Amino acid sequence: MSDINALTLTQKAWEEISHHAVETFAEECCGVILHNGGIDAVRRCRNIQNALHALDAESYPRDATIAYAMDLKELEAIIHEAGTTGAKIKAFYHSHPNHEAYFSQEDKAFATPFGEPTFPESAHIVISIYDRAVKRISAYAWAQEKKDFVEIPLKKI
After folding, report:
1. Which of 81, 106, 123, 156 is disulfide-compatible with 91, CB 3.0–4.6 A?
2. Could you tell me if 5 and 139 are in contact, meaning their C-beta atoms sit under 8 angstroms apart?
3. Superfamily (CATH H level) for 7-114+129-156
4. pTM
5. How buried is 36 (Cβ within 10 angstroms: 0-12 exposed, 13-18 middle, 19+ buried)?
6. Which tens digit of pLDDT belongs to each residue from 115-142?
C-alpha cells in the first residue's frame, strides 16, 4: 500500500488538467496542483523539452511529443507560492499523447532524481490523450515499502 491511499481532485481541477492536455496535444503538457483550504489550484508549466532537444539532441534525444521537462523558473515560483501561502503540493501532472496513462521510467527519474522522491507526499497524475480526446487519468504515489510508485485510486469531487 502506498503512503497516499487515494487522491481526489475537484471537478474544476480535473477539467483544467484535461483542457491543458487537449490544448497542447500532440505534445505533453505538465504542471502542478496546489491544495489550500479545500481548493485545488492548477498551475501550468511550460514544457521546455523541445528547447532542450534543439540545444543538445544527444543529451535530450526525445522531443515534447514523448517527453516533458518543466521550466525550472516556473516550477520554483510554484514551489515558492506554496511555501508562502501554506498550500500543499498535491500533485504533479503531465500528459501522454497517443499513449496510455502509465508511470514510465522517465517519469520515475523526474520524481526521484536522487533515488528518493523529492516530494514524497505529492502524487503524480498522468493523462492519456488520443486525438485530442482524454481517455484516462491515473494517479501514482510513492510506496516507501516498495521504494517505487504505485497506482492509487483517483476520484473527482
Report:
1. 123
2. no
3. Cytidine Deaminase, domain 2 (3.40.140.10)
4. 0.94
5. middle
6. 899 999 999 999 999 999 999 999 999 9
